[in-house]
């Protein structure tokens, strides 16, 4: 039998964790031939609930699930991790300023980065889901000097999937016929879902849509504010769709993206498209040989340029803020 892959999931007792762990254990993330060992990392108050989730995982009798361990210590939790899903984060509380939020998360993602540096497997791949995801990933990476920076990524796949679905509905096109959509920038309300390189069954999406008003005043805000709309409707934030996107992100990272389309992920910038080097920004990406690469050579029109710059500027501000706080 293949050696099991160690998957560490933080925030395992939370609502995304509850939706995510069963998908991983069933083989949907790493494929039907890859056994997994789950390492659930929680804060001490979350351990009991994580034990309950582990009991349910046992009760599924997943053939690929080779073991479950529960930790409240990051160094132990990340030891030997091949895949690390950083889901647990500090949410914004009442009256919390952005600096307070970044500082509170620095207190989580700094030590977790250090723990990954200390004991994760050499091939570790990290996906940060917990918000503010891009900057949390930057903090974790800064504390893991021995881990290549490109192993730290943040999740914009949920935004990507939301954009696919909105475009499919608007144009009455099956999702499977849509290719080359892009989310640029930050996983926040400034993100830019870009349809200018997308195709619908091979036809340019922008020409099929041909409705700049819909693009600017319906599509972009619907995608960017979808999280708030879900909270409004469900009384709780997105969980199953977030877990699904995390599964998609890691699946494509490990198994490769199909030749027919690229996807979106927040990865460290190499300076492409004028995005300052080092910040973790969403790009059009392909994965080959287990590594993400930014799709090069796209023409960026003036409308897109303005939107990309606005979101990237927000990321630069966040980076400068965490630098000022001594978190990176
Ligand atoms: P929950 O509050 O349900 O669960 C979070 C869990 O994390 C809790 O069980 C908590 O005990 C645990 N936790 C907190 N600090 C921890 C630490 N230092 N180590 C280990 N565990 C810790 O939140 P949930 O709905 O699961 O959301 C988790 C995160 O995902 C939030 O930050 C949320 O904002 C973020 N999201 C990110 C999305 C994305 O697209 N990037 C979309 C969905 C979601 O909003």
Automatic annotation (TrEMBL):
It catalyses: (S)-malate + NAD(+) = oxaloacetate + NADH + H(+). It comes from the Bacteria. GO terms for biological process: malate metabolic process; tricarboxylic acid cycle. Keywords: NAD, Oxidoreductase, Tricarboxylic acid cycle. NAD(+) binds at residues 11-17, 105, 112, 129-131. PROSITE patterns: MDH (PS00068). Residues 156-321 form the Lactate/malate dehydrogenase C-terminal domain. Substrate binds at residues 92, 98, 131, 162. SUPFAM superfamilies: LDH C-terminal domain-like, NAD(P)-binding Rossmann-fold domains. Its EC number is 1.1.1.37. GO terms for molecular function: L-malate dehydrogenase (NAD+) activity. The active site is at residue 187. Catalyzes the reversible oxidation of malate to oxaloacetate. NCBIfam families: MalateDH-SF1, PRK05442.1. Belongs to the LDH/MDH superfamily. MDH type 2 family. HAMAP family: Malate_dehydrog_2 (MF_01517). This is Malate dehydrogenase. The gene is mdh.
């Amino acid at each position: 039998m293949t050696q099991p892959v160690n998957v560490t999931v933080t925030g395992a007792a939370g609502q995304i964790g509850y939706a995510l762990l069963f998908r991983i254990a069933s083989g949907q993330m790493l494929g039907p031939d890859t056994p997994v060992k789950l390492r659930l990392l929680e804060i001490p108050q979350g351990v009991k609930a994580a034990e309950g989730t582990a009991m349910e995982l046992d009760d599924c009798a997943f053939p690929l699930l080779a073991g479950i361990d529960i930790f409240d210590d990051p160094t132990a939790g990340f030891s030997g991790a091949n895949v690390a899903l950083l889901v647990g984060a500090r949410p914004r509380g009442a009256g919390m300023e952005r600096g307070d939020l970044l500082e509170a998360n620095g207190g989580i993602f700094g030590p977790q980065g250090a723990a990954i540096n200390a004991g994760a497997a050499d091939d570790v791949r990290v996906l940060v889901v917990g918000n503010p995801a891009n900057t949390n990933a930057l903090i974790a990476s800064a504390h893991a000097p021995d881990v290549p920076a490109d192993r730290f990524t943040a999740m914009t796949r949920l935004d990507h999937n939301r954009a696919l679905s909105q475009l499919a509905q608007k144009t009455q096109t099956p999702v499977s016929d849509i290719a080359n959509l892009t989310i640029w920038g930050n996983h926040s309300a400034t993100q830019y879902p870009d349809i200018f390189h997308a195709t619908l069954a091979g036809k340019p999406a922008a020409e099929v849509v041909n409705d700049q008003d819909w693009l600017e005043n319906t599509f972009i805000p619907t995608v960017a504010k979808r999280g708030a709309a879900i909270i409004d409707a469900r009384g709780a934030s997105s969980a199953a769709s977030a877990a699904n996107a995390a599964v998609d992100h890691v699946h494509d990272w490990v198994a490769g993206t199909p030749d027919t389309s690229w996807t979106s992920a927040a990865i460290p910038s190499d300076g492409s498209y004028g995005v300052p080097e080092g910040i973790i920004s969403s790009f059009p990406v392909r994965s080959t040989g287990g590594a993400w690469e930014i799709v090069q050579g796209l023409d960026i029109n003036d409308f897109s340029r303005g939107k990309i710059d606005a979101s990237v500027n927000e990321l630069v501000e966040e980076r400068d803020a965490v630098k000022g706080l001594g978190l990176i």
